[in-house]
Amino acid sequence: MSDVSAAGGAAPAGDDLALPFTLESSGVRGRLVRTGPVVDAILTRHAYPAPVARLLGEMLALAGLMASMLKYDGIFTLQASGDGPVSMVVVDYMSDGAVRGYASVDEDRLPADDAAMVEENADVLKLMGQGHLAFTLDQEGTAERQQGIVELNGRTLAGCLQHYFQQSEQVASSLRLGAARVRANDGTTGWRAGGLMMQRLPEEAGARDLAGVDAEDDWRRAVVLMASATREELCDPDLSANQLLYRLFHEEGVRVYQQHTLADSCRCSREKVANVLTKMDPGEVESMKLSDGSIEVTCQFCNRMYHFTDAQVGELAANAG
Known about the structure:
Keywords: Chaperone, Cytoplasm, Disulfide bond, Redox-active center, Zinc. One of its GO terms (molecular function) is unfolded protein binding. By secondary structure, this protein is of the alpha+beta class. It has two domains: 263 residues, Hsp33 domain, CATH 3.55.30.10; 51 residues, CBS domain Like, CATH 3.90.1280.10. Helices cover 34% and strands 31% of the residues. It has eleven helices and 17 strands. Helix 9 packs across helix 11. About 2% of the residues have low confidence.
């Protein structure tokens, strides 16, 4: 735990992290996510059109904010589904910080770049249409799954999730998301994404009211300060996480805690693909064969391709029997 200063203090200045913080003047809790190499690797690997890349970048930042709030050992999944040109966006976060994501898109139905943006964010309604946003927590070693679902009824991802917290969790929340392809001072260019989330827990607000502190005014001031954060600041490769928090909240007294490091990593493997093939209907497996009898399976997340010869497919079928 450390206080933030203009010079950077003890807070990390690196990339690909989720950083918890509190505002000492009000007790408001928050998270800051900054991603550089991780989001650039994921978006470059898939070569999506710019509006889709921005949407997935924002999803990666949003999932990082949500996952870093939870104490779990397993997988946190954030999935948006709709009837628009982007039918699905999925992001997985492992408890060890491994992250992966992909989008399913019909490029022929995409609107023009400008039409797919609302202010500084991807326009969810134009890109995904009617649908829902679901988040699932799979705890390792247990069959129980925690899940929440919210309708895609806002123009932005941040708006959709704020609505969920307000209606379902009754927790005052404020969100800022951004994703962009930017150029750093050293001349390098790449995709970056960032996100800020603050929450005021009911018990904390009540405790401050009893102490004679106007918690509502504290919260509103914090929200106004956070709302001043631009997409450019969230994605600036030359502005550290510490510097951004100080720029926004130095008058409130901002304190940061241990960061969560993020890494571009996929859980797919040849063994997992083989296991899926053995459980499929034989007719469906047969329909997947190429002219030489082999099968090629490509991971949607990382684009890694797994090749099985005709003989290997036969062995899998024999083992399945």
